[in-house]
Each structure stands twice: as C-alpha cells, then as structure tokens.
Amino acid sequence: MGIKLLTLLQLLLGILFLLGALAIAVAGFGLPEVFPHVRFLPVRLFTVAVVLFILAVIEFTLALGVWSGKRWAWTASLAFAILSVVFFVFSLFLRPGLGELVSLIIDLLVLYYLMQPRVQAYFGKGASAP
Hints:
- The chain is mainly α.
- It has helices at 2-34, 41-68, 71-94, 98-114, 117-122.
- The mean pLDDT is 85.
- It has two domains: 1-68; 69-130.
C-alpha cells in the first residue's frame, strides 16, 4: 500500500511539474505580444519551463523505479525527500504558510517510510535484503 502511495505521489509531482512547464512555456511565448518592452523575460521563463520539464521527467522515472523496487529509486527518493525537507524548513522561516507546513510533513512521512526495514528490503537495501 505504501509503495503504491509513494508511486502515486511521484506521479502527481511529475504531472504538476509538467503542467507548470507547459503553463510557463505558453506564458513565455505570449508575453512579448502583450508586453513588448519586456525582452528578456521570455528567455527566463523558457529556462524555468525547461527545468520544470526535466524535473517532471525525473519524477516520472522515479515513479517507475519505485513501483519496480529498483535500488536507485530508493536512494534517489531518499535524497529528494531530504532536499525537500531542507527546502521547506527554510521556506517556513522565510514565508510561513500552510502549504509549506503540509509539504514538510509529507516529506518527513516519506523519509520515515523509506527508512522502514521492510521497505528497504523491498528495494534490496538493509539487513533483510536478499
């Protein structure tokens, strides 16, 4: 059940990154028409859209790896969860809000789940790995 939930979370993040990339790319193409004096903003928006697209591909790849029980998926998910915890702790200090708090709690739960012995064994990690 937890693996399904973790895979679903990765898929949802991938979809959100992909939708964000598409929205920013479309806005970047339309901005020069609306605001002709803003020359460099479309280039910056395109760069952000490319980064979001890369993050979407990473999330989709992680979802597939988590679902398949790949060792690298456990390591990558753990690394991304740790980075997210650090990011949202800083976000709470800079701009406290409910979204940051919920995201921090979710990432802490993911970290806790990934450290469970049976989950580590599923990914071929830990003492009970085959």
